[in-house]
Design a protein that fits this description.
The complex is a heterodimer. By secondary structure, chain A is of the alpha/beta class. Chain A is 34% helix and 18% strand. Chain B is 46% helix and 11% strand. Chain B has a 5-stranded mixed β-sheet. Chain B is globular, with a radius of gyration of 24 Å. Classes of the chains: A alpha/beta, B alpha+beta. The interface between A and B is large, with 68 and 64 residues.
Chain lengths: 579, 351
């Protein structure tokens, strides 16, 4: 059995920021474990910026940022969390800047800031349109400088929790095929989101919700999983992200008539309305027959109003992505775009110190020694819809807070241990796939699942489609029992990992769908045709989905209150959300 | 839909077998090489292993050789890679050991960043920092392209020096070192320049073949960064090393004789002064040249006595003119560099 004081799973912004914080205490032995090398983490794909009310471009305050965040999240945001996020934003940006982050500069030499959807002030700090990459790189550099141990290309298989006390992890060394137990007094998950279950997505192949499902399997309920953000500007077909920075810089979105249709949906903000609103507007235009291209499944984003020089300087990645992946030069022609599954608002429930806590009715029992941060977690700073540039901010702010949360308690935690019995599930799972001989194939089931989720649990939802969706997901789960793989080797067996990941996707897809069926209202990223209005009386609350126990055939849903108690100001009262 | 043949270089670690395998894939317009590898893996042979994640050229996982050149498979269109319906050859990156199929052991490549300590070494900082440092747009623009490295290893894979020298820091780590040398927030500029000048496998080992610039899927321009580091290192006075002596010997040979003087160059590189003072290490270095010198002699690459008398008068005049023009150009550059240096000092003024 391997052993560390602190083990952080996932090496994106949240995980690395937490590890750096923990490494401030030289008496602690901290390690990061990730299925990809840290520099490959999906945080690096974030393009447009990281929000903070620095006020470099125009007057700005943290409570204005907090208000935008709460309203952007359609008031499902926990206000204690949004307060922490926005108050601590600037300090976190300055810290990154002091680590060497390659932030673009304004004429005064300060960190440059630009506009983003749903934010009333220009508060997106950016590194051209590769902000995530710049922050990811600098965090990894500082980790190297500190000499933090990294288990690179190790796959976490199972979280071991006994009597609400986290013991550690069972993990698979992708290089050798060995399964190892790693005990730790504190484990933190920064394992990312779950967008891979949708056909059209910006998410990396790695974003398969592994951490979320490991927590679920360990008995921890998942919060608000039905809230999935569809980003309005994915490249048609592949869904590859074109940054919202394009709209921040002044790109137009038009339908087949060449009309800037946001006029009809959010006249006050036009293209810079929050993502859920723009994505629904696009989908409505497409469904009304005003889509573009031969397939009529997309609308146009036109970058030309920005001007060539500025596009080249501020949006080089957008320019290259459109050229390389759609064969279209945005300097010459508009680019076909469509809504694409982008961000997972739901996840592992935790408090503002990263402590995983079942926000159950009374007492809020915590999982001792288990922390989460970033997209895998649900604090919830994003509520029903995340604003652009708030995700990188959350990963950094909450990663740091989780690191501090760990430092606060870890010295008082008992050493933990993992025995052979605790490893049985993980060992069994790997053995099962290595010896399975069924006729079903991972690639086939996965493709069908992604179609189902996209078409029946997508931008717009209704009861009938969601029920079809759920029954199809159940069907895939049954077929999955009969799956076999080709690769039975022990070295770099990605065939095996594909199978394990599909198991995760099938499990959380059921949770998404179940939560979506139950939530009979429209709020943020969850839009029901049959319940088009927000219903605060019945649904101003978070969903908690428990894994079915023996005898249950569906996740058990419970609900908990939305936090309305910020510390340093009055809460923002519920209001109608218009832009 | 058209069919495209892929010939994939495979390696099975369990049996230690290397072999080529051919697959036919239905391709749609716009399909990438990575899409095709996935189609093979998911529909034909699940044992095929390769790394990939973001599939839009930012995570750096999927660099491999396509038709012999290193590139990101996700960024490479099948149409662009296939010539007249020829099969597309896909193989693992070069200069690194293969683990399985297209998966290589990247640790040798990534370790170079640690060796070059490519992270910011800040000046004494406030904690927590009150504000950001100021940095001029022009300063940022000067190095920011080098910060776009996605550590994919394509440059290292195609590097002709890394192919023969395990010790070479390689294009990516050197470009990243450049990025910190140029960043006014870094406190170790001098130490970096010294290290990069004197380290075995540092800036002077690059042969300027340009493969790294060609292979880089981003805007890093590693070789240009290395060349700029050389200039900065000389300006900073790091001239007493093999690389600079070699550089100077090269130049003086050409200036005097109109061509490379392979006979004198090793002596100049090792350092005439070092040899005359009986420096043992220098004499050992000379001995190391002997086998190469014998090969050069045999292949008549060493200048004869007659040739060493050099170019005729007219030729010499021409060469001198070329040198003068280049030096005038360089002076121009130095003026720019001075102006930039002054700005740099201003930027550092806060410390």
């Amino acid at each position: 059995m391997l052993q560390h004081d602190v083990l952080i799973v996932g090496s994106g912004l949240a995980g690395m920021r937490a590890a750096l914080e923990v490494s401030n205490d030289p008496t602690l032995d901290v390690a990061i474990l990730s299925k990809v090398h840290p520099l490959r983490s999906h945080s690096g794909a974030a393009q447009g910026g990281i929000a903070a009310s620095l006020g470099n471009s125009a007057e700005d305050t943290w409570d204005l940022h907090m208000f935008d965040t709460v309203k952007g999240g359609d008031y499902l945001v926990d206000q204690d969390a949004a307060e922490v996020l926005t108050r601590e934003g600037p300090e976190n940006i300055f810290e990154l800047e002091h680590m060497g982050c390659a932030f673009s500069r304004d004429d005064e030499g300060r960190v440059a800031q630009r506009r983003f959807g749903g934010h009333t002030a220009p508060r997106a700090c950016y590194a051209a349109d590769r902000t995530g990459h710049a922050v990811l790189t600098v965090l990894f550099e500082q980790l190297l400088r500190r000499g933090v141990k990294v288990y690179s290309e190790w796959y976490a298989l199972d979280l071991v929790v006994k009597d609400n006390v986290c013991q550690g992890l069972v993990a698979y060394d992708i290089l050798s095929g060995q399964i190892e137990a790693i005990s730790a007094k504190a484990v933190m998950f920064g394992t990312g989101g779950y967008g891979r279950a949708f056909r059209v997505t910006t998410n990396a192949f790695a974003s398969t919700g592994d951490g979320v499902v490991m927590a679920y399997r360990a008995g921890i309920p998942l919060e608000d999983m039905e809230f999935v953000q569809f980003h309005p500007t994915g490249l048609q077909g592949s869904g590859i992200l074109l940054s919202e920075a394009a709209r921040g810089e002044g790109a137009h979105i038009v339908n087949s008539d060449g009309f800037r249709f946001m006029e009809n949906y959010a006249p006050g903000r036009m293209e810079l309305a929050p993502r859920d609103i723009v994505a629904r507007a696009e989908q409505s235009e497409i469904e009304a027959g005003r889509g573009v291209t031969a397939l009529r499944d997309s609308v146009f984003m036109d970058l030309r109003p920005i001007g060539e020089e500025r596009i080249r300087y501020a949006l080089p990645s957008v320019l290259h992505l459109a050229r390389d992946f759609a064969g279209i030069d945005p300097l010459e022609a508009p680019v076909p775009i469509q809504p694409t599954a982008h961000y997972s608002m739901g996840g592992i429930p935790c408090d503002i110190n990263g402590q995983v806590r079942i926000k159950d009715l009374d007492g809020a029992p915590e999982i001792t020694g288990f922390f989460a941060a970033g997209e895998a977690s649900c604090v919830s700073v994003h509520g029903a819809n995340r604003l652009g540039t708030n995700s990188l901010l959350e990963a950094v702010v909450m990663g740091r807070r989780a690191g501090r949360g760990i430092l606060d308690v870890v010295h008082d935690l008992e050493p933990t241990s993992i025995d052979e019995g605790d490893m049985a599930n993980a060992v069994g799972e790997v053995d099962h796939f290595l010896s399975a001989s069924g006729s079903e194939k991972v690639g086939q089931i996965r493709a069908e699942l992604r179609d189902t989720m996209m078409d029946k649990c997508g931008v717009f939802r209704d009861d009938a489609e969601l029920r079809e969706c759920l029954s199809e997901v159940k069907d895939y789960q049954e077929r999955f029992k009969n799956v076999s793989i080709d690769d039975h080797g022990s070295t770099f067996n990605t065939d095996l990992l594909d199978a394990i990941e599909l198991g995760h996707m099938l499990e959380y897809s059921e949770v998404i769908t179940t939560g979506a069926i139950a939530r009979q209202e429209s709020r943020g990223g969850h839009a029901r045709r049959d319940f088009p209005n927000r219903d605060d009386e019945n649904w101003h609350r978070h969903t908690l989905a428990y894994r079915p126990q023996d005898g249950e055939d569906a996740p058990r849903l419970e609900y908990c209150e939305v936090n309305m108690q910020p510390k340093f100001r009055e809460p923002f009262p519920l209001q109608e959300r218009t832009y | 839909m058209a069919q495209q043949e892929f010939i994939i270089q495979r390696y099975n670690p369990d049996t230690d077998e290397s072999y080529e395998e051919s697959f036919n894939v239905d391709v749609q317009p716009g399909q990438t090489v990575l899409d095709s590898l996935n189609a093979i893996k998911w529909e034909q042979d699940g044992t095929l292993s390769f790394r990939m994640s973001c599939r839009h050229a930012i995570c750096g996982s999927c660099a491999m050789k396509v038709n012999g050149q290193s590139m990101l498979s996700c960024q490479t269109q099948v149409d662009a890679a296939a010539e007249r319906g020829d099969p597309i050859h896909v193989g693992p990156q070069g200069n690194q050991n293969v683990i399985k199929d297209l998966v290589v052991d990247v640790s040798k490549f990534l370790n170079q960043f640690e060796r070059a300590e490519t992270w910011l070494e800040p000046y004494e900082d406030q904690d927590p920092p009150g504000r950001e440092h100021r940095q001029k747009v022009e300063e940022f623009d000067h190095w920011s392209h080098a910060s776009t490295c996605i550590h994919c290893g394509a440059c290292y894979s195609d590097c002709t020096v890394a192919a023969v020298d395990e010790n070479f820091l390689g294009p990516a780590a050197l470009a990243k070192a450049y990025r910190f040398v140029m960043d006014s927030r870094d406190s170790k500029r001098e130490e970096r320049l010294q290290f990069l000048s004197e380290e075995q496998g540092g800036i002077w080992d690059c042969t300027r073949c340009y493969m790294c610039v060609q292979a880089c899927p981003k805007d890093v321009l590693p070789m240009d960064a290395i060349m700029e580091l050389r200039t900065l290192a000389i300006e900073a006075g790091h001239v007493n090393n093999h690389g600079v002596r070699h550089h100077k010997g090269f130049m003086s040979g050409v200036r005097k004789r109109g061509r490379l003087d392979e006979m004198m160059l090793p002596v100049q590189s090792v350092g005439i002064g070092r040899l005359l003072t009986g420096n043992l290490a220098a004499h050992k270095e000379m001995m190391d040249y002997t086998p190469g010198a014998i090969r050069l002699l045999k292949s008549r690459k060493l200048l004869t006595i007659a040739q060493r008398h050099g170019a005729n008068t007219e030729g010499r005049e021409q060469i001198e003119r070329i040198f003068e023009e280049v030096e005038a150009e360089k002076h121009h550059h130095d003026v720019d560099a001075e102006a930039f240096g002054a700005e740099f000092e201003t930027a550092l003024g806060g410390h």
